[in-house]
Amino acid sequence: QEPFVADEYIERLAWRTPGGGSRGGEAFDPKRLLEEFVNHIQELQVMDERIQRKVEKLEQQCQKEAKEFAKKVQELQKSNQVAFQHFQELDEHISYVATKVCHLGDQLEGVNTPRQRAVEAQKLMKYFNEFLDGELKSDVFTNSEKIKEAADIIQKLHLIAQELPFDRFSEVKSKIASKYHDLECQLIQEFTSAQRRGEISRMREVAAVLLHFKGYSHCVDVYIKQCQEGAFLRNDVFEDAAILCQRVNKQVGEIFSNPETVLAKLIQNIFEVKLQSYVKDQLEEHRKSDAEQYLKNLYDLYTRTTNLSSKLMEFNLGTDKQTFLSKLIKSIFISYLENYIEVEIGYLKSRSAMILQRYYDSKNHQKRSIGTGGIQDLKERLRQRTNLPLGPSIDTHGETFLSQEVVVNLLQETKQAFERCHRLSDPSDLPKNAFRIFSMLVESLCTEHIDYALETGLAGIPSSDSRNANLYFLDVVHQANTIFHLFDKQFNDHLMPLISSSPKLSECLQKKKDIIEQMEVKLDMGIDRTLNCMIGQMKHILAAEQKKTDFKPEDENNVLIQYTNACVKVCGYVRKQVEKIRNSMDGKNVDTVLMELGVRFHRLIYEHLQQYSYSCMGGMLAICDVAEYRKCAKDFKIALVLQLFDTLHALCNLLVVAPDNLKQVCSGEQLANLDKNILHSFVQLRVDYRSARLARHFS
C-alpha cells in the first residue's frame, strides 16, 4: 500500500519476529531472524508471480476488447457514410422540388398581380362612375364606420383625377376634390376626438391613413396644439416645457411613423411661441428702465433656456439636434445678445461710480481732482526723482479713503459681470468682452479708488521737520496690500479662465503689471517719506530731551540714572513704529522697510553722539544709552541693523577705556575693520583728548 517505505517495512517485520530485537528482555537470535526473512521473501515471490499472471490476463482481455471496439467503430463509420449519401440525395431532391415550387409561385403571381390590378381598376372605375353619375351609392361612402376604406379609395381617385383633362372632367374632378377634402376633415376631427379621449390606438390608425393626405401636417399641428392645452399652468414655463416634452416623447412613437419630426416640431413651437413670448415680457419691462434687473433676467433666462436645451438633447430629434436647438435659442435671444456687452459696460460704469460716490458721501468728502496732462506729469516726474512733496500737505484726519466694503462691492459686481459675459458672449467675442470688463475694474477700483487714496495719502504725509506728526500712510499701505490680494484673486479665479487661450491674455497680464508697478512706485515713495518723518520725530525728541550735561555731569560721583530720558523716549517711539510697520505689511516687504528704518535710525544716533563731549562717567552713560538702542534694534530682527548697533556700542567703549588700552581696543574684532578716521573721531569726543598722554597713545 502507498506510501510504501522499505526501511519501515523491514523494521516492523523484525519486531514481529521472536528474537528479532533486543528490547523486552528477549535475547537476539540472528538465525531465527534470517530464517524469517528467507520465508518472507519466498512468500513475496509467490505473491508477485500470482499478481503478474493476473496482470497478463487483464492485458489480454483489454487487447481483445480493443479489437472488438475498433471493429465496431469501423462498422459505424460505414453506416454514417451511407446515411450521409442518403442525406445528400434527399437534399438535392428537396432543392429540386423547392425550385419547382418557386417557379410555380412566380407564374401564379405573374398571373394574379395583373388580375388584382384589373380588379382594383375595375373597383376604382365603378367608384369613379358613381362620381360621374353624381350619386354615391356604395356602402364604403355611406357607412361612416368604413371611413378608412373610403379614404384609401378617394386618395387614389384624387391622384387619378389630377391626370384627367379639365375641360371634359371638371365637374367630376370638383366632386372628387370635395369628397377628398370632406374625408380629410373627418379624419382630422376623428384624430382630435381620439386624442381628447386618450385612445392611442385609434390615433395611430387615423394618423397612418392621413399620412398619404395633404392634410397630414395639419394633423400634426392639431396634435401639438392639444398637447399644450393645460401644460403651462405653473409659473415655471421652462420646467413645464421639459415635462411636456418628456411626456410627448413617450407617446409620439406609438402614434406617428416619423416621431422625431413631430417632436422636433413641438419643441420648435414651444420655443418660438411660449418661450419667446415669456422672454420678451420679462426683458422688455426692464430693458430701458433698470439695467441691473435687465442683465440679471437676461442671464437667468438664457441659462434656463440652455439648461432646457440640454435636457432636450436626450430625445431623438433627427440627425443634427445640437444645431437645431442652438438655432432656436439664437432666434429668441439674438436681439438681446447683439448689444449685451454695451449694456454690461454701461451698467458697470454707472454702478461703480455710484458705489464710490456713496462711500465718499458717507465720509463727507469731496473728491479732489487729480490733474492730468503736462503740468501734472512734470510734477509726478519731479516727485519721483526728488521724493519731495509738491503742493500743500493735506490733513486727512487719519482717514485712508480706502474701504474694504467698497472693494468687495466692486469685485462682486465685476464677478457677476464675468459670469454673465461667459454665458452670454459669443465664443469668438468672449476674450475681447472679458478684457473690457477687466478694464472697467481697473478704472474703478485701481484708478478711481486705490490710486486716489494713494495720492491723498501722499499729500497727507507731513514734512520731515514737522513736530508731533501723525503718520497714517502706513494704514493706507496695509489696506492697499489687502485690496491687491483680493484684486489678484479675482484676476486668477474669474478672468483667467475666460482669456487663457487667447491673445488677450498677454494684454491683460501687461495691464495688470503696469497698474501694480504704478501703485508700487507711489507706495515706495510714501513709505520713504514716512520713514523720513519718523527720523524727523526722533530728531525732535533728541533735540528736546538730550542735554549737554547728560554726558558731562558736574558731579561725576553722583550719577543715579541708567540711561538718559532722551534715549527712553526715542526707544519707546521706535518700538511703536516697528510694530506698526509689521502690522501694515507682509512678506519680505516688512524686512526691507525695517532694514531701511534701522539703517536711518543708526545713522541718526551715530550723528547725534558726535555732537557731545564725554567725561568718563558721561561715556559710561552713553554706552548705557547705546546698549538700550541696541536692545531696541533687536526688535527689528534684522541682522545688519543689529550689527551696526553692535559696532556703535564698541565705538562708545573708546569714550571710557584707559589711554594705555586704546590701541588694544581699536584692534579688537569689532573695530579692526573700521576706518581709522572714524575711530579717531570718537576718541576726540573725550574731554581728556587734549592731554598729551591720550594723544600720544592714539597716534
UniProtKB/TrEMBL annotation:
What InterPro entries does the database record attribute to this sequence? Sec10-like (IPR009976), Sec10_HB (IPR048627), Sec10_N (IPR048625)
What's the short name of a Pfam family annotated to this entry?
Sec10_HB
Transmembrane intervals: none
Q: Which part of the chain is the Exocyst complex component Sec10 N-terminal domain?
A: 30-138
Where does the Exocyst complex component Sec10-like alpha-helical bundle domain lie? 149-698
Alphabetical UniProt keywords:
Coiled coil, Exocytosis, Transport
Supply one GO BP term: Golgi to plasma membrane transport
Q: Name one GO cellular component term.
A: exocyst
Q: Which intervals of the chain form a coiled coil?
A: 41-79
Q: Which domain of life is it from?
A: Eukaryota
Has the keyword Coiled coil been applied to this entry? yes
What PANTHER family does this protein map onto? EXOCYST COMPLEX COMPONENT 5, SEC10
Record family assignment? Belongs to the SEC10 family.
Write down what this protein is called: Exocyst complex component 5
Give the source species: Acanthisitta chloris
